[in-house]
């Protein structure tokens, strides 16, 4: 639908709904339920320089207020992803965003540069916010100087727009956002999971083998809305918002806070049809609250934006 379309750096979105990285794999299982071409875009699972098997199990657990995970960036490696997963997604004529991860700055650069081998990926999402790996990930996402440095170096080697995925596990999210914007980021993805932990009472041990994990789901939505609201007032680059979206009303709330598009994560596990259902429901919700398009709603919950 025309009123759902949105243009972002590198991305001509037919609608603002996409699955979040790590919650959708590479789309193969979901493609058995619906046409992935209905989506605004697909953000692939993280890619590292070589294959990773992730953390020991158990690495996913339900809590009373959301899901904990410590997958640990399991993936087949960037070369294999380009060889097998990108062509699969390309067949659906949907914009593809590659999530780039690493243990060192050099690995981030190498992975980003490798994606130059294909012209089928439309943008990169720089994952400096994974809380579940011992090296890399959140190590870069909690220090503005380190985040800016890896952003700048990836921009130097990549042919693609770079969206930097920010961690909520910081004391000043605005400082992080401004640092990567100055370093050349074309957009932001926010937020990643909140660091959490749960104890299994019978064994008196942590539920996850990794002990701690990332909390996702509806419980973190107010945190995401607050952080997007704060960041939107201080940066000029677009934001892909995420964190606990389960309804079209939630999508509108993210738009009002300042997001230009949204990514849906944990809800895909409860309802594999959640993304197409949101796409179908969003026009009526926009109309109900007085907006003629997605673009008309962006930032309208922020007073300074009028």
Automatic annotation (TrEMBL):
Residues 4-286 form the Dihydroorotate dehydrogenase catalytic domain. CDD domains: DHOD_1B_like. The active site is at residue 130. Pathway: Pyrimidine metabolism; UMP biosynthesis via de novo pathway; orotate from (S)-dihydroorotate (NAD(+) route): step 1/1. Keywords: Cytoplasm, Flavoprotein, FMN, NAD, Oxidoreductase, Pyrimidine biosynthesis. It holds the Pfam family DHO_dh. Binds 1 FMN per subunit. Belongs to the dihydroorotate dehydrogenase family. Type 1 subfamily. This is Dihydroorotate dehydrogenase.
């Amino acid at each position: 639908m025309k009123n759902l379309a949105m243009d972002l750096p590198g991305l001509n979105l037919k609608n603002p709904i996409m699955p979040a990285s790590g919650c959708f794999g590479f789309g193969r299982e979901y493609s058995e339920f619906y046409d992935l071409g209905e989506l605004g875009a697909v953000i692939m699972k993280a890619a590292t320089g070589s294959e990773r098997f992730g953390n020991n199990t158990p690495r996913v657990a339900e809590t009373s207020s959301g899901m904990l995970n410590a997958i640990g960036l399991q993936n087949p490696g960037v070369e294999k992803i380009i060889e097998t997963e990108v062509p699969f997604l390309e067949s659906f004529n949907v914009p593809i965003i590659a999530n780039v991860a690493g243990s060192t700055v050099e690995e981030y650069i190498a992975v980003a540069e490798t994606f130059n081998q294909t012209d089928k990926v439309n943008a990169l999402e720089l994952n400096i916010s994974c809380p579940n790996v011992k090296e890399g990930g959140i190590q870069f996402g909690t220090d503005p100087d380190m985040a800016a440095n890896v952003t700048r170096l990836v921009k130097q080697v990549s042919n693609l727009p770079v969206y930097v995925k920010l961690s909520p596990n910081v004391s000043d999210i605005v400082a992080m956002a401004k640092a990567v914007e100055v370093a050349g980021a074309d957009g932001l993805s926010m937020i990643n999971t909140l660091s959490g932990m749960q104890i299994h009472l019978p064994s008196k041990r942590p539920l996850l083998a990794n002990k701690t994990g990332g909390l996702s789901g509806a419980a973190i939505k107010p945190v995401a809305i607050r952080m997007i609201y704060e960041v939107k007032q201080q940066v000029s680059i677009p934001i892909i918002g995420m964190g606990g979206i389960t309804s079209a009303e939630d999508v509108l709330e993210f738009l009002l806070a300042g997001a230009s598009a949204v990514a849906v994560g944990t809800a895909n596990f409860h309802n594999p049809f959640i993304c197409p259902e949101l796409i179908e429901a969003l026009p009526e919700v926009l109309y109900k609250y007085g907006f003629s398009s997605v673009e008309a709603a962006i930032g309208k919950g922020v007073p300074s934006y009028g």
